[in-house]
Amino acid sequence: MRNRIKTRRVFHISITLLLVSTIFCQNGTGSHNTTADQISSYWSNRSQTMYSNASSLLSDLLSDYDIRLRPGFGGDALLLTMDIIIASFDSISEVDMDYTLTMYLHQYWTDERLRWNNEIPIDEMTLSGEFSQ
């Protein structure tokens, strides 16, 4: 038990020293930047995009998109993943062998035609259901 505690302590000290040395190596010896400054500059640079609004991004993304073709048309079958969550059994009739079921069906897949290049610094975008109409 005592060896395990020593091993954990050595591991935590080693990780801490590694992180501190990495920060100092990145900053250089003459730099006075703090980690908080680095984090804030990272997030401010990350939030700058080439698009002023989502509409222009979507119009560029969908310019060559054909909704009539399935993703990966002419290639391998598409991997479609489904989740079914049963929320409730509402009414059950044993005589008529009938029941009412409330469930959620979630389908998801990857459409490579909608993948944008790395020049656009956006990780994800959530759209409403009205977009598909």
TrEMBL record:
<dbReference type="InterPro" id="IPR006202">
    <property type="entry name" value="Neur_chan_lig-bd"/>
</dbReference>
<dbReference type="Pfam" id="PF02931">
    <property type="entry name" value="Neur_chan_LBD"/>
</dbReference>
<dbReference type="GO" id="GO:0016020">
    <property type="term" value="C:membrane"/>
</dbReference>
<keyword id="KW-0732">Signal</keyword>
<dbReference type="GO" id="GO:0005230">
    <property type="term" value="F:extracellular ligand-gated monoatomic ion channel activity"/>
</dbReference>
<protein>
    <recommendedName>
        <fullName>Neurotransmitter-gated ion-channel ligand-binding domain-containing protein</fullName>
    </recommendedName>
</protein>
<feature type="domain" description="Neurotransmitter-gated ion-channel ligand-binding">
    <location>
        <begin position="55"/>
        <end position="127"/>
    </location>
</feature>
<feature type="signal peptide">
    <location>
        <begin position="1"/>
        <end position="25"/>
    </location>
</feature>
<dbReference type="InterPro" id="IPR036734">
    <property type="entry name" value="Neur_chan_lig-bd_sf"/>
</dbReference>
